[in-house]
Specification:
Pfam families: UDPGT. By secondary structure, the chain is an alpha/beta fold. The protein has 17 helices and 13 strands. Helix 11 links the parallel strand 9 and strand 10. It binds uridine-5'-diphosphate (UDP). The site of uridine-5'-diphosphate (UDP) has 17 residues, from helix 1, helix 12 and helix 13.
């Protein structure tokens, strides 16, 4: 009988946040389909293995984490996690090497799980960094890693400095665009940037973006970091999107969408992490209803204090919502964005949501909460011109109503929609044989097979 060639093993190390785990598992699926074995290393929190039935053939292993679940979130947590996980990850690699001989082809780790670099070095294993954010965010991180937090704070009080260009990029990136807001103390952020920008012994970076979206940032990175960059996004278009969430999608919203007119619905979702104040939720509710457009709105449990479903809103508001809109705790977002009835996306501009919206040709209303989301919003508004930002720390119902009408009713919104559809076609072309992402993935697979 013909002897089957053994699969080479790739060890994947995601960070346990939805926006990072999902693309990492999509990458795993794509590599599995090319003949690699996949081992996913996870912590105790938000274990992906709970949805392991969607990843047949994958091995899941858990490493001990000394942090408590309540410590989760924020830059400080990330720095602590890296400081405390190195030893248990090394133990885990020892176990894997004992089980599987020396058959680990490569460790692919999330850019924020940089503790993996030490184990790769110690065991002389090849390693590759995986970035689930935009290339421009990576550029920003490299730039910030070279700055001093105190000096930066003082410099940024000068309007001239705020407008100054960062490096030689096109479209231009100004100092005020650097994603620094909303992450807590600048010193911690700069420390994290220094760690993320340090490539250690990694020999390549895989990035979930598309060359036609961020060509200049990708070239800058390749030059400055000095190792190959594989821009293989959007990963959700490469494999079937298996769920990797602890929360089930509420598919009843698809039946609701089926009853709406083409391109009439505004889809509203703030991702999996953002917290909203009760007042903002109420203003959103009034504004959405006053716009007279049908809306599908995701409100996660515990994303807003005191909100526990539509019943917890004042009676007049919940009555109004049930007439014009539909609320779910979690939606099958990619399917929703691809639905004929959806004409716009009110988003916090997380990178996955941004890519998913572009891939479906859906223009966006941007309501970013922190730096990296603001950078994505800046690209959506000023570079790709497929949406606009709602500014200000608080929004009121009037602004919500005006923004929805601007996107869904006005001529300007129709133009954004047209540009979004052009970009959608470009993304499609990049994933087809001969396209940039297709070729980059092909090269990545060849490269991993040489390891
Ligand atoms: N998502 C989803 N259903 C929801 C809300 C979010 O499927 O109801 C998915 C969405 O498709 C995206 C991810 O969760 O893939 C959110 O990632 P993103 O980077 O946009 O934001 P984050 O949650 O990291 O802030």
């Amino acid at each position: 009988m013909e002897k089957r060639e053994a699969r080479r093993r790739i060890v994947l190390v995601p960070i346990s946040a939805q926006g990072h785990v999902t693309p990492m598992l999509q990458l795993g699926k794509a590599l599995y389909s090319k003949g690699f074995s996949i081992t996913v290393v996870e912590g105790h929190f938000n274990q992906v293995s709970s949805s392991s039935q969607h990843f047949p053939g994958f091995q899941f292993v858990t490493i001990k984490e000394s942090l408590r679940e309540s410590d989760q979130g924020g830059i400080g947590f990330m720095i602590k996690l890296n400081k405390t996980s190195e030893a248990s990850f090394k133990d885990c690699i020892v176990q894997l090497l004992l089980q599987q001989g020396s058959d680990i082809a490569c460790i692919i780790y999330d850019e924020f799980m940089y503790f993996c670099g030490a184990a790769a070095k110690e065991f002389n294993l090849p390693s590759v960094i995986f970035s689930t954010e935009s290339a421009t965010n990576y550029v920003s991180c490299c730039v910030l890693s070279k700055l001093n937090a105190d000096k930066f704070s003082v410099d940024m009080e000068d309007p001239g400095m705020q407008e100054k260009m960062v490096e030689n990029l096109y479209p231009p990136l100004r100092y005020k665009d650097l994603p620094t807001s909303g992450f807590g103390p600048l010193e911690d952020l700069f420390e994290l940037c220094r760690e993320v920008a340090n490539k250690r012994t990694a020999s390549a970076v895989i990035i979930n973006t598309v060359s036609c979206l961020e060509n200049s940032s990708l070239s800058w990175l390749e030059q400055k970091i000095g190792i190959p960059m594989y821009a293989i996004g959007p990963l959700h278009n490469m494999t079937d999107s298996a769920p990797s969430s602890l929360l089930e999608d509420d598919r009843s919203c698809i039946d609701w969408l089926n009853r709406q007119k083409p391109r009439s619905v505004i889809y509203v979702s703030m991702g999996t992490v953002v917290q909203m104040e009760t007042k903002e939720v109420l203003e959103m509710a009034w504004g959405l209803c006053n716009s007279n457009q049908p809306f599908l709105w995701v409100i996660r449990p515990r994303s807003c204090p005191g909100f526990n479903g539509i019943e917890s809103l004042p009676k007049e508001v919940s009555k109004m919502i049930s007439e014009r809109g539909y609320i779910v705790k979690r939606a099958p977002q990619i399917e929703v964005l691809g639905h004929l009835a959806v004409g716009g996306f009110w988003t916090h501009c997380g990178w996955n949501s941004t890519l998913e919206s572009i891939a479906e040709g859906v223009p966006m209303i941007c309501r970013p909460f922190h730096g990296e989301q603001k950078l994505n919003a800046m690209y959506i508004e000023s570079v790709w011109r497929i949406g606009f930002q709602v500014e200000g720390s608080k929004v009121d119902r009037g602004e919500v109503e005006r923004a929805v009408k601007r996107l869904m009713v006005d001529e300007e919104g129709a133009e954004m929609q047209e540009r979004a559809l052009v970009l959608k076609e470009k993304l499609k072309a990049s994933m087809k044989s001969g396209g940039t992402s297709y070729n980059a993935f092909d090269e990545l697979v060849k490269y991993l097979k040489t390891m």
